[in-house]
Amino acid sequence: MGAEVEVVSRVAPPRAPGKKRTSTTLLHLLQLDNPDGVFVFAAAAAANKLPPPEPEPEAESLIDKIASCCRVFAFADDDAAERADERDAKLERLEEVLAAVRSSGKNQPPGLDHLVMVALVKMFAANLFRTMPPPATCPSVLAEAADEEAPAASLLPSWPHLQAVYDVLLAVIAAADAKALRNHIDRPFLTSLLALFASEDPRERDRLKTAYHQLYAKLTPERAFMRRSMAATLLASVHECGGGVAELLEICGSIINGFAVPLKEEHRGFLLRVLLPLHRARWLHAYHRQLVYCVLQFVHKEPVLAGAVVEGILRRWPVTNCQKEVLLIDELEEIVDALDQRQFDALAAPICSRIARCATSCSSQVAERALYVWNNERFLEMASAGGAMERILPPFVASVEDNLERHWSKCVQQVTASVKALLLQVAPDLYDRCSADLAASRAEADARAAARDARWRRLEAAADANGLSGS
Questions:
Q1: What is the CA radius of gyration of the chain?
Q2: Do the domain assignments include residue 178?
Q3: CB 316 within 8 A of CB 278
Q4: Per-residue H/E/C for the chain
Q5: Structural domains of the chain, count
Q6: Is the sign of the CA dihedral 200, 202, 203, 208 positive or negative?
Q7: Which residues are within 8 A (CB) of 291 and not within 5 positions of it... i.e. 6 or more apart?
Q8: Do residues 112 and 173 both lie within one domain?
Q9: What is the mean pLDDT of the chain?
Q10: Cis peptide before 395, with omega less than 30 degrees from 0?
């Protein structure tokens, strides 16, 4: 019980008309002593804090069930401490907890008790957060062997329990309001959740992707932190083989889709400093589809970024990885589809020069994919408009003629012949002029090579005559 404290304060007499009120402070008023006026305050002792509220009987029973689910089973057959009936009992309790959480979302008002939320967060941490082993198989192992079968995914034996825990987590995110989530899910929890994307089980990564995305939608104050955390994880994957990049990029794609235009500098920096460096990784094929979607979202929102995107891709072009070359040609073609005529005219020279060089690749897959760019109606339409063909055709004519003369693959020669027929139909005069220029440049190169060989022969003859020969 708090004690009542009587504080005497002076009550100022009525001021005379026209007289200015004297300025006073609250401390001064409380220290004055006047029997005409009394202020009474009821003060409670600060040390006597209120005890935490006792949970309802139903909530207390639910908390006990949640606490019993904190025991983690290794699902090892040779572990004598684990029994199948105990595992089944835990799974049943998790299903009961899931049903209780889902029913709480239907209450009016919907929500979960504070103590229940505390117990749930502890249960999530005990079952989900763990140290991830190094990956047993790396996607880069098969990067240069496209004909080999991909290794089987590593499936966790404890997935039945993990699946139930993830179901409870998703139900909690759906049932709890944003304020309750902010009070119980902090940054260390989000960081530990993000680290689980390194799991080799695709089923866990898929559930984790859904949970992390829903948390991003509800935890508005933590969105910037979550974006920075995802960016750091993606950058680390450029140099270190690991899973979860595709799932993280799917989340990023949905986030990018909601960015307002004009883009913030932070968002442009994510494109230039995170997404473009991801093209450098040897295991690009493991997440290329999701990466292309993210990049194209930026290009659609701000087409002026297309120049920086093309430059970043060409700067990271592979030298010996044929599979990556095919993927990057696909990406360049999709970027071209997103451009208008003016933007294509500005980027036609670097894009087509690279594709023309790929058309003469020793890899038949790369050469055919580069030549098939001419089957794209949008590309052909923009290449034929204006003066773009004047810059595009010369490198392609050299590649076409070189393939017809020297390429080892009959399939590549057939596709090259089809492309030549198309180019002769679209721009016959320009093709003939480029062919003539190519023949003249080759003749000059042959003449220079012959003159160089003649000089060497004269030098060798003079050396022999003077006895300076190395033989």
A1: 36
A2: yes
A3: no
A4: CCCEEEEECCCCCCCCCCCCCCCCCHHHHHHCCCCCCEEEEECCCCCCCCCCCCCCHHHHHHHHHHHHCCCCCCCCCCCCCCCHHHHHHHHHHHHHHHHHHHHHCCCCCCCCCHHHHHHHHHHHHHHHCCCCCCCCCCHHHHCCCCCCCCCCCCCCCCHHHHHHHHHHHHHHHHHCCHHHHHHHCCHHHHHHHHHHHHCCCHHHHHHHHHHHHHHHHHCHHHHHHHHHHHHHHHHHHHHCCCCCHHHHHHHHHHHHHCCCCCCCHHHHHHHHHHHHHHHHCCCHHHCHHHHHHHHHHHHHHCHHHHHHHHHHHHHCCCCCCHHHHHHHHHHHHHHHHCCCHHHHHHHHHHHHHHHHHHHCCCCHHHHHHHHHHHHCHHHHHHHHCCCHHHHHHHHHHHHHHHHHHHCCCHHHHHHHHHHHHHHHHHCHHHHHHHHHHHHHHHHHHHHHHHHHHHHHHHHHHHHHHCCCCCC
A5: 2
A6: positive
A7: 249, 275, 278, 279, 284
A8: yes
A9: 85
A10: no
Contact yes or no for 343/385 (Cβ under 8 A): no
Residue pLDDT, tens place only, 44-81: 444 455 555 555 667 888 999 999 999 998 877 666 56
pLDDT (tens digit per residue) in 20-29: 555 456 555 5
The pair of three-digit structure tokens given for residue 64, joined into one six-digit string? 């006990």
**pLDDT surpasses 80 at 469:** no
52 in a structural domain: no
CB atoms within 10 A of CB 161: 20
Taking the CB of residue 99, how many other CB atoms lie within 10 A of it? 12
**pLDDT, tens digit (0-9, with 9 covering 90-100), for 206-223:** 999 999 999 999 999 999
The model's pLDDT over 24-52, given as tens digits with 9 standing for 90+, comes to 565 555 555 554 444 444 444 444 555 55
279 part of a folded domain? no
Same domain, 107 and 31: no
**Residue 155 near residue 201 (C-beta atoms within 8 A):** yes
- What was the pLDDT predicted at 138? 62
Same domain, residue pair 9 and 117? no
Which residue type is seen at 308? A
User: Which residues constitute the domain of residue 106?
Assistant: 63-74+81-132+157-218
For the chain, how far is it from start to end, CA to CA, in angstroms? 115
Average pLDDT of span 444-467? 89
Q: Which amino acid is at 124?
A: F
Q: What are residue 157's phi and psi, to 5 degrees?
A: -65, -25
Q: 10 Å Cβ neighbour count for 305? A: 17
> What does pTM read for this prediction?
0.81
**Residues 168, 213 share a domain:** yes
CB < 8 Å & 24+ apart, contacts of 438-447: 438/394, 438/397, 438/398, 438/401
Q: Are 359 and 399 contacting, i.e. CB atoms less than 8 angstroms apart?
A: yes
